[in-house]
Amino acid sequence: MFSSAVPYKNQHYHDLKKDCIKDQKLFEDPEFPATSSSLYFRKPPPGFVEWKRPGEICQEPYLFVEGISSHDLNQGVVGNCWFVAACSCLALKPNLWKKVIPDHKEQEWDHKHPAEYAGIFHFQFWVFGEWVDVVVDDRLPTINGELIYCHSKENNEFWSALVEKAYAKLAGCYESLEGGNTGDAVVDFSGAVSELVSLEEGAFYKDQKKEEQLFEDLLKVYDRGGIISCSIKAEPHEIELKMSNGLVKGHAYSVTAVKKVRLGHGLLAYFQNDTIPLIRMRNPWGKTEWKGAWSDSSEEWSKVGDTERGNLGITVADDGEFWMSFTDWCKFFTEADVCRLINTSMISVHKTWHEVVHFGSWTKNAEPLLNRCGGCSNHRQTFLQNPQYLFDITKEVDEVLISLQQKDLKSLRKVGQGENLTIGFSVFKVELNRKYRMHDILTQESVVTSTYINARSVFLRATLPLGRYIIFPTTFRPLTLGDFMLRVFTDVESGCRELIQDKPKIRCWSSFFGYPQVVTHVYVHGA
């Protein structure tokens, strides 16, 4: 997979490193210079910034000190808790971080052979459907000799600071990383599919069945390598406000475990099989924890046997990691980013999905039949002008996963743009023999519509009966332009394809027979 990663800015890591070693010089990246333009476009950091190489910060720098851990990381002075939370999640998944940090052993410092060090690193991110290889030099921004952005607890460990620098390069500068979304970063680390779950609107803690179903879903996601993060909504003046229960508003937390914890002591606990659903999180600050039930030193842990507590790694320390009951988690957190690693491997013990990916654009054209930016279904006069994608459900009933992702434009924040469009999609059931674009919304059956949100991606799971369907990816308002990627996952091949033609092509005999003037629709809802 990574041999085919596209070099960002056409910079080839191995060639650049070879040249630096040959010339006995340390790499200086001309595409992301050690200047203020790489730091900010509006708001400078709070102090005089010096760019320092790791060897100028400590005596013996390393990428990793005693391996990689979710406990390695701390937040910097900018609002990048979302990125630190994503890195904490990444550290828990060796199969993922070894993709993001390729050839990690080769990139590690070799203090026995300093002449082979060239001050150059490379990292790989999944950018709009393809893996991109990003080269950076090792000059990092500091104030008073300390790193000011994402950094490790150990002052001689630099993997997180260098990964963040490569990610900032993609975004244009460090300031463009302010106020991001943890789910987006996880997708960029993995190629996963991200779903935003509103815990507030779902009110799961008020409905036991809904809560149990959500827990089982998240347990399955986590056990299959997925990544979960969560946060509490905040007004602008409440960002990173500490609440009386120890949680912080407007702050991203990484979920580091989802477990059914066995209650009781000794052999009796195994026979009774009494469990409680718990969830473990980490605060990117590396401190400030939940103070309620199942917190580090709460009396609830007396219900759990020593062996089970040992397996869970319970520690009484203000290290930023803590447990909560799943009910309290649903009650106090307002939203969760759930990133699924969809299994498309044909050799697997788990369910295998068939994936189809389409790239498209919302474009404007004065000719209605060629216009492709019609807005959502509220705008009935223009809705059908949007791109249309047809797929088939060939089983009696099948689950379909649909992800719509717009192109990331953070790099345009420097010029006052780069905000997400409000996007979503609708799915219509159509005639089994349909081959051409829809032109009449009243005669077709709308079966499901996603939420519309100004997020980078929108995700929907739906169970659909046998039939033919059309997906309409749209912006909320008409005449809004942008690029998108549509991913469709089904249990069996769906034949998903874009509908381009409005009607059959004119043939030599069309003048004799003409086009059909009447179409009959028959819907059988029961028999």
- Overall pLDDT: 90
Find the structural class using helix and strand composition. Answer: alpha+beta
* Main beta sheet strand tally, sense and closure: 7 strands, antiparallel
Radius of gyration: 26 Å
Number of strands: 21
**Spans of at least 5 consecutive residues with low confidence:** none
> Any idea how many domains?
3
In DSSP terms, counting alpha (H) and pi (I) runs of 4 or more, how many helices? 13
Q: What shape does the CA trace take? A: globular
Family: Belongs to the peptidase C2 family.
InterPro entries: C2_III, Calpain_cysteine_protease, Calpain_domain_III, Calpain_III, Calpain_III_sf, Papain-like_cys_pep_sf, Pept_cys_AS, Peptidase_C2_calpain_cat
Protein name: Calpain catalytic domain-containing protein
Pfam family, one: Calpain_III
List keywords for this structure.
527 residues, Jelly Rolls, alpha+beta, Cathepsin B, Chain A, single chain, 6-stranded antiparallel β-sheet, 7-stranded antiparallel β-sheet, 3 domains
Structure description:
With 527 residues, the protein is of the alpha+beta class. The chain folds into three domains: 2-189, no CATH class; 193-340, Alpha-Beta Complex (Cathepsin B, Chain A), CATH 3.90.70.10; 354-501, Jelly Rolls. Helices cover 20% and strands 27% of the residues. The protein contains 13 helices and 21 strands. The chain has helices at residues 13-23, 54-57, 81-91, 94-100, 104-107, 159-171, 182-190, 199-202, 208-223, 266-272, 306-312, 326-332, 510-513; strands at 6-7, 50-52, 73-74, 120-127, 130-137, 140-143, 146-147, 151-152, 193-198, 227-231, 253-262, 275-282, 321-325, 335-340, 354-362, 389-406, 423-430, 445-449, 457-475, 482-490, 497-498. The strands form five sheets. Strands 15, 16, 17, 18, 19, 20 and 21 form a seven-stranded antiparallel beta sheet that branches. A six-stranded antiparallel beta sheet has the order 9-14-10-11-12-13. A three-stranded mixed beta sheet has the order 1-5-4. α3 crosses α7. The longest helix has 16 residues, at 208-223. It starts with 5 loop residues before the first strand and ends in a 14-residue tail after the last helix. Belongs to the peptidase C2 family. The active site is at 81, 251, 283.
